[in-house]
Amino acid sequence: MQNSPVPLAPVHQVEDHRVAIVTGASSGIGRDTAIELSRAGFEVWAGARRTARMKDLGSHGIRVLPLDVTDEASMAFFVDAVLAGAGRIDVLVNNAGRGGYGAVEDMPLASGRELFEVNLFGLARMVQLVLPAMRDQGSGRIINISSVGARIYEPFAAWYHASKYAVEGFSDSLRLEVRPFGIHVTMVEPGLIASEWNSIARKDFLKVSKGGAYERSARRMARLLALADRKAVGSSPRVVAETVVAASLATTPRTRYAVGAGAKAAVAARKVLPDSAMDAVLGRLG
User: What are phi and psi of 174, to 5 degrees?
Assistant: First the structure.
């Protein structure tokens, strides 16, 4: 990967100098999170593969660098650049992620591995890279963007849900390891969010299902997923961004924040309904 940085925006200095990294910042939740953290007074470093889509973030005082969370050199370059330019890292927002829909029978194992590479292993490597600096300064926040899909399940999304369940297990264990060093680990679990992520996942879903035994069910579920794009149904990415800011500033952040349309209701239903009842409800999606 080409690791030449795009021109950096002027640093937004504040008296209480705090530095935040946001991955997957070219659109949706990541973009809004970078902007809201900057407004809250953080020096923000935003990373994504599509750097051209982040150029205007400079007007918010945000520094932009290329970042591919499936590329070791790219991740190391990014974190080294932040430490060289800012001298510290106070918040890591692991937002970069991929969606994936398709019947288990239809989806190649390579597609499942790709989801885990982005959603889990890229996230984990970013954590490894920032922890030494956070330990040395005796403080830090790691905020992993999970999903309400880590608390429930649905047909045709086995690999996606598996990757998000893995993020939550990883985060819970990590929290205990780093707590003695003054580092907090938080998961933000978005519900239905109107974003580019949704439309891309639907297109891939229909493509992998075309001509197969699950095509009819896939088309029906894709139509339901499209409802999240409507303002009356799906929440704005900004609600997630505002939650990330709150978790970044809280004296003692919660371990989990369920936010966005349907998130809290889904989590509550999972706590009280037996599997048979959840199967009956969620099975209607397919």
Answer: -60, -40
- Confidence band of 84 (pLDDT split at 50, 70, 90): very high
pLDDT tens digits, one per residue of 11-36: 334 447 899 999 999 999 999 999 99
Average pLDDT, the chain: 91
103: containing domain: 19-266
Catalytic residue among 160, 165, 214, 257: 160
Domain with residue 97: its CATH number is 3.40.50.720
- Say whether 160 is catalytic: yes
**Number of domain units in the chain:** 1
CA nearest neighbour of 28 among 2, 11, 46: 46
- For 88-117, the pLDDT digits (tens) are 999 999 999 998 889 999 999 999 999 999
Residue 275 counted as domain residue: no
